[in-house]
Amino acid sequence: MAVIGFLYRGSLPDGTVFDDSEGVPHEIVTGRSQIMPVLEQNLLEMAVGEERTVQLAAEDAYGPYVEKNVERVPVFMIPQGEDLQEGALIHWTSPNNSKPLVVRIRSIANQVAELDFNHPLAGKDLSYWVKLVGRED
């Protein structure tokens, strides 16, 4: 195990940035599944001060988009369902999950909402620029 500090910027293939450490190092303990395995492996191979761009296929990032992860739920069963808007993100808790999941409202029609339980980046290839700024073995 090692404690690794790194800067990062995550983007989509078209260059759209979806996450950025903005100059503040992110710290992880290796072997604890805190980041994607491919990204962790690259960081372990780097020397302090080294920069690299890591390309991740969707399967190595947030996995494929799964249509079965979209559920139709009557609006009255969703907290504050009368205020839902298509495309909005809500926190959803059910008896099956101990902490709320972030769910996207895919559509609303006839008092039924389609809730998308896929990660917002599921099915997308990603690119991470990383710079290793510290390592403590």
Give a concise summary.
With 137 residues, the chain is mainly beta. The chain has one helix at 37-45, and strands spanning 3-11, 17-20, 26-29, 51-56, 70-74, 89-92, 101-109, 112-116, 126-136.
Give a written overview of the molecule:
- With 137 residues, the protein is mostly beta strands.
- The protein folds into 2 domains: 77 residues, Chitinase A, domain 3 (Roll); 50 residues, Thrombin, subunit H (Beta Barrel).
- Helix content is 7%, strand content 42%.
- The strands form 2 sheets. Strands 1, 2, 3, 4 and 9 form a 5-stranded antiparallel beta sheet that branches.
- A hairpin with a 5-residue loop joins strand 1 and strand 2.
- The longest helix is centred in the first third of the chain and has 9 residues.
- The chain is elongated, with a radius of gyration of 18 Å.
- The N and C termini lie close together (6 Å).
